[in-house]
């Protein structure tokens, strides 16, 4: 059991994982994920009504905020509660519970054999017809995730880390263009901060080297520095980097580096535009990144040329003044 | 002593609004560019001021171009090719040499031609090349989402940023030289008075703009 129920309405990235070990409430037949056509009627073919009546049945118990049990093996509390609001607003909000979970969960008490079964996000998501058109390919996510520090680290905290550790399937929602940037950043970083408590502690925070750390935290996602630039066209990689491998180079954002800069800038620009329309976008442009246009070469040469020009003009003026004096003397 | 009315009301209005906006843009632009240097505007106000002034400058520039198309001020921006190089040389030699020898001004403004050839090419370069590039790159910044991801293999935003920055520097350079050159009229204030009142007066016999 390695999953943690996180904040609802998480933002920023897609959902992904390989074989994932999930708690009983989420456990389902993995074959459901692998062969969705055989077992699970697709969301479209099923009437919305039958879906919602099924979900109501499940939520009768699972919407209780305190529904949980203590895992007898390790003593951990396993949270079984689902917030119906968050669920219906999530990416999976259109689905019936049994689209992912074994339909035999409909029996109560739930059959023993279903417990401890696994759910494969990647399998299911890659089988969707639109898999190839998605911005995020789950196969790619899976590849990236395998190299993530959340997988490769031997720290005990990351044991059993899975997609669900960050992306609660019952609440996850992609952030959308048009949402308040600050809101997206807050939600996104909230996911990281929910485990990385050391960052909240000024004595242990490894970000003290950053100028204006608070401003950074409000304006930039953790991911923007803690993931490599992906070449595959996906906006953000799922390969979370170790602190020591993450970007520490200010100039990667505060200057030209096209990818890292554009990733942030374009997104913010689009959001600005969607929120405000183009006139106020033009006036308030929130997307400006300090130093983006900084170029030491251009700055230095331009300032040098300007200085030389000023000297030249000064000298010219002095020459004119002397000529003027001479002409006055000649006249008198 | 003669007086010529060379700078009509709209030219003067445009010019001084433009000059004011330019100073505001330079200061607010520098505040963004060198943000953190301390002696500048704070970032948020700088953005607001710079973008607002930029929009007004765009409107002003369009006004100037249209004004030159419909009024007879436009004639001063049409280069006469006949003797062009000769006139350019003469004017340059005057600024580089003759002016120190109290040589007479080689150019005399008239209603037909108020700008000497050197002024003319400078103003054409500034108003018809640099300003539009500056304005376009400024707007491209704001609407970079509509640009391709990369231009010539480099991130578009960066290309735009460097263009905007370089042109801004060029125009600062222009402004410095412009400010100096206008003092080289008949008297130090001759040209300044002309741009303020419209009237170009020459108290001596050799007028120049
Ligand atoms: C505080 C700054 C400025 C001052 C004091 C100033 C002063 C003057 C003066 C006295 C003239 C008339 C003399 C002449 O024709 O050379 C003039 C003309 C002109 N200036 Fe400026 N100027 C300033 C800024 C600018 C800027 C920023 C620009 C353009 C970006 C500019 C563009 C022009 C043009 C195009 C003309 C000729 C206008 C015409 O008659 O068609 N000036 N300026």
Structure write-up:
The complex is a heterodimer of chains A (332) and B (209). Chain A has 332 residues and is mainly alpha-helical. Chain A has a domain at 295-332. Chain A contains 14 helices and four strands. In chain A, the strands form two sheets. In chain A, strands 1-4 form a two-stranded antiparallel sheet. In chain A, strand 2 and strand 3 form a beta hairpin. The longest helix of chain A is centred in the last third of the chain and has 36 residues, at 296-331. Chain A is elongated and about 120 Å long. Residues 1-43 of chain A have low confidence and may be disordered. Chain B has 209 residues and is mainly alpha-helical. Chain B has a single domain (2-202), classed as Fumarate Reductase Cytochrome B subunit (Up-down Bundle), CATH 1.20.950. Chain B is 60% helix and 6% strand. Chain B contains six helices and four strands, in the order E-H-H-H-H-E-E-H-H-E. Chain B has helices at residues 9-33, 43-70, 84-96, 117-142, 156-181, 190-197; strands at 2-5, 150-151, 154-155, 199-202. In chain B, the strands form two sheets. Chain B has a two-stranded antiparallel sheet with strand order 1-4. In chain B, strand 2 (150-151) and strand 3 (154-155) form a beta hairpin. The longest helix of chain B has 28 residues, at 43-70. Classes of the chains: A mainly alpha (332), B mainly alpha (209). Chains A and B meet through helix 13 and helix 14 of A and helix 2, helix 4, strand 3 and helix 5 of B. The complex binds protoporphyrin IX containing FE (HEM).
């Amino acid at each position: 059991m390695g999953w943690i129920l996180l904040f609802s309405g998480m933002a920023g990235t897609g959902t992904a994982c390989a074989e994932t070990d999930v708690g009983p409430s989420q456990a389902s037949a993995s074959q459901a994920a692998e062969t969705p056509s055989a077992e699970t009627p697709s969301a479209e073919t099923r009437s919305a009504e039958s879906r919602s009546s099924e979900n109501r049945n499940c939520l009768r118990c699972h919407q209780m905020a305190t529904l949980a049990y203590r895992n007898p093996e390790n003593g951990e509390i396993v949270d079984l509660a689902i917030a119906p609001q968050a669920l219906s607003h999530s990416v999976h909000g259109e689905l019936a519970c049994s689209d992912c979970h074994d339909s035999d969960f409909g029996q109560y008490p739930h059959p023993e054999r279903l417990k401890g079964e696994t759910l494969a996000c990647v399998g299911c998501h890659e089988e969707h017809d639109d898999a190839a058109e998605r911005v995020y390919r789950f196969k790619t996510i899976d590849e990236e995730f395998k190299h993530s520090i959340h997988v490769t680290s031997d720290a005990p905290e990351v044991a059993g880390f899975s997609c669900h550790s960050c992306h609660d399937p019952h609440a996850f929602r992609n952030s959308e263009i048009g949402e308040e940037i600050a809101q997206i950043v807050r939600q996104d970083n909230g996911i990281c901060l929910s485990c990385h408590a050391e960052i909240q502690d000024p004595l242990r925070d490894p970000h003290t080297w950053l100028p204006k750390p608070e401003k950074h935290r409000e304006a930039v996602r953790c991911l923007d520095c803690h993931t490599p630039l992906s070449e595959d066209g996906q906006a953000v990689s799922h390969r979370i980097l170790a602190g020591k491998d993450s970007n520490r180079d200010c100039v990667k954002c505060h200057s030209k580096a096209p990818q890292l800069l554009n990733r942030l800038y374009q997104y913010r620009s689009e959001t600005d535009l969607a929120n405000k329309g183009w006139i106020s976008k033009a006036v308030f442009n929130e997307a400006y990144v300090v130093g983006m246009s900084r170029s030491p070469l251009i700055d230095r040469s331009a300032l040098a040329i300007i200085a030389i020009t000023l000297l030249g003009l000064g000298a010219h003026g002095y020459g004119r003044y002397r000529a003027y004096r001479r002409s006055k003397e000649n006249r008198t | 002593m003669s007086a010529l009315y060379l700078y009509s009301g709209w030219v003067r209005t445009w010019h001084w609004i433009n000059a004011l906006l330019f100073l505001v843009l330079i200061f607010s632009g520098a505040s963004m560019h060198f943000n953190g240097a301390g002696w500048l505007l704070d970032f948020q106000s700088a953005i607001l001021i710079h973008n607002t002034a930029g929009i007004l400058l765009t409107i002003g520039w369009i006004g100037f171009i249209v004004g030159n198309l419909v009024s007879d001020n436009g004639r001063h921006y049409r280069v006469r090719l006949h003797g062009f190089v000769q006139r350019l040389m003469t004017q340059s030699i005057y600024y580089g040499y003759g002016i120190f020898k109290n040589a007479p001004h080689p150019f005399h403004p008239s209603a037909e031609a108020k700008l000497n050839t050197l002024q003319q090419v400078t103003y054409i370069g500034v108003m018809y090349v640099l300003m539009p590039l500056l304005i376009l790159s400024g707007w491209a910044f704001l609407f970079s989402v509509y640009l391709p991801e990369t231009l010539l293999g480099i991130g578009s935003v960066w290309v735009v940023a460097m263009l905007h920055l370089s042109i801004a520097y060029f125009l600062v350079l222009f402004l410095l030289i412009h400010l100096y050159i206008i003092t080289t009229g008949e008297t130090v204030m001759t040209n300044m008075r002309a741009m303020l009142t419209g009237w170009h007066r020459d108290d001596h016999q050799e007028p120049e703009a």
